[in-house]
Amino acid sequence: MNAYDLITTQIGNRNNHSSLQTLDTFNTGRFYANADLFPDKLFDLKGQPLRMSLFNYPPYNVWWEVPPGTGNANLDGSEDGKSLFVDGTETLLALEFCKLYNCTLYIVIDEEHTWGTVYDNGTGDGSLGNTYERRSDIGVGGQYSWHQFHFFLDLSAPFTRSSATVMCPKPKQRTGLVLLVLPFSNMMWAAEFVTLFTCIMSLIMSRLASSRLHREHAVVSLPSTWFEVWAISVLQSRTFVLRHLPETIIVVCALISSILIASAYSGELAGMTTVPQYEEPIDTNRQFAERKMKWGAWHHAWVTSLEDASDPIVEYLVHSFELISTESLGTRPYSDDFCYPLETLQYGHFAIGDFLTVEKTSFLRLIRDDFYWGHVVAYQYKTWPLKNLYDMHVLYVVQSGLFKYWETRAVEKYQNWKVQLAIATSRRKDKPMPISLKIDHMSGVFIIWGIGCGISTVVFVAEIFLVRYYRKIGIPVHLEGLS
User: Fold this and answer.
1) Which of 22, 125, 168, 215 has the CB geometry, 3.0–4.6 Å to 339, for a possible disulfide?
2) How far is CA 195 from CA 121, 199, 229, 246, 263, in A?
3) Which residues are registered as beta bridge partners of 339?
4) Would you tell me how many other CB atoms lie within 10 Å of the CB of residue 472?
5) Prediction pTM value
């Protein structure tokens, strides 16, 4: 009888992965070696290459070149072995996978395009494009599960949660004219002006009615009455000629209410001038949109998760985004309408760029709301044979708690710890302490005083010229109404 050799493809490194291997020989109704005809070839990959596309983005991925043989990964396309040293949470995940299943890690680097994209013509660049065109097996870089790419790529099991947010300028201390308005709410100011207007009109009507009733000839002037009531409201002395009881009642009521209101205002203003008052901080996405703030980053991937949204606030977040290089972000001067991006990681740390320094964060404050959040995954090309094996590896690592340790370790090694602390404590509110009055606190008073002096000087000069002109043409002038 004929004998049949059962052969299979031998899995090995990139140089011998296509060679054949004989499993067993079948003859006369039996196998010679009784070998396992369906061996698990994935348990030992025998140096099979695992190509991973990445870029420098701590704490997810960090890489630098080292002398050949001293690194822990290979540069794809280079003949020098172990010429890269890689680190970071996502990179360690792949390194441990290769240790466990005996594969060789090759790194595909694209610092120019970073995350990259997949174009309509079937090409791509960056981490996503390299994976789509199968220049790499998986692509990493703090990538969320973006729905735009699920037609082209597969997603691994999620291994952490992250959210995108911004640091906005800290609230400014309120001074000047604004400080004079703060003691009362808008409703209280409206009630005060309505009271003044009612008092003025009541006093005018009372004087007109009394003059007709008693058949007296009295000059009732709106400017004069307005100045009288205004003087009462600011507790200024004024000479009143009260001929009748209704006028007296109105003036007395106005005086009593003015004393109470002025006392409350003075007490509140005294507290606000000694204890610093600040503008309302930006804490929510709605406040970000209402104040017409802007933000920017070095790649469009920062707003990929927000695209196709119909919420007006989310639409504003997309429209207010500016594409700016990391160098420009680092040298961008401080402005009141621009916020800087960062990621809040699952275990309390932050993924920040070099553009956020200790000096810059001293003027910034982390907002409370996230722009969005998502699960961080690795992208894989369709039909990658190691997908299920890699997903199980991810789940084992996550449930063991290793990812928390890797995140903390990577942040400590590759991020500025002082900046991390500055960001984490940027929302902390210190108890305000009384301070000495400065010129800024009273600048509003001096502005009002200066405006008053300017207006009165203009009116006084205008009166002089008008009186001279009217007397010159023979028109009598009576100024008693403004006395």
Assistant:
1) 168
2) 71, 6, 10, 17, 17
3) 295
4) 8
5) 0.75
Closest CA to 353 of 374, 334, 331: 331
Q: How far is Cα 160 from Cα 376, in angstroms, rounded to an integer?
A: 5
Greatest alpha-carbon span in the chain:
145
Spatial CB neighbours of 5, under 8 Å, sequence gap ≥ 6: 22, 24, 25
Write the pLDDT tens digit of every residue in 245-304: 777 788 888 888 888 888 888 787 777 777 777 788 999 999 999 999 999 999 999 999
Q: How far is CA 185 from the centre of its chain?
A: 29
For 205, the domain range is 183-276+439-462
**Residues 6+ positions from 131 with CB-CB distance below 8 Å:** 53, 137, 138, 139, 153, 379, 380, 381
Contact 71, 85 (CB under 8 A): yes
**Rounded alpha-carbon distances, angstroms, from residue 150 to 125, 147, 186, 291, 303:** 16, 6, 52, 35, 17
Do the domain assignments include residue 480?
A: no
- Whole-number Å distance between alpha carbons of 477 and 470: 7
CB 102 within 8 A of CB 47: yes
- Residues 285 and 291: their CA atoms lie apart, in Å, by 10
d(CA 325, CA 93): 29
Question: What's CA 234's distance to the chain center, in Å?
Answer: 44
Structure tokens at 96: 């441990």
Task: Report the distance separating Cα 80 and Cα 135, nearest Å.
Answer: 19
| Residue 39 belongs to some domain of the structure | no
Q: How many domains does the chain have?
A: 1
Place of tokens 């009384």: 434
Which residue shows structure tokens 């079948």? Answer: 26
DSSP state, 139? E
The angle subtended at Cα 345 by Cα 344 and Cα 348, nearest 5°, is 90
In order, the DSSP letters of 226-272 are: HHHHHHHHTT--------SHHHHHHHHHHHHHHHHHHHHHHHHHHHH
The region, left, alpha or beta by phi > 0 then psi within -120 to 50, assigned to residue 206 is alpha
pLDDT tens digits, residue range 297-340? 999 999 999 998 899 999 999 999 999 999 999 888 888 899 99
Instruction: Tell me if 237 is assigned to some domain.
Output: yes
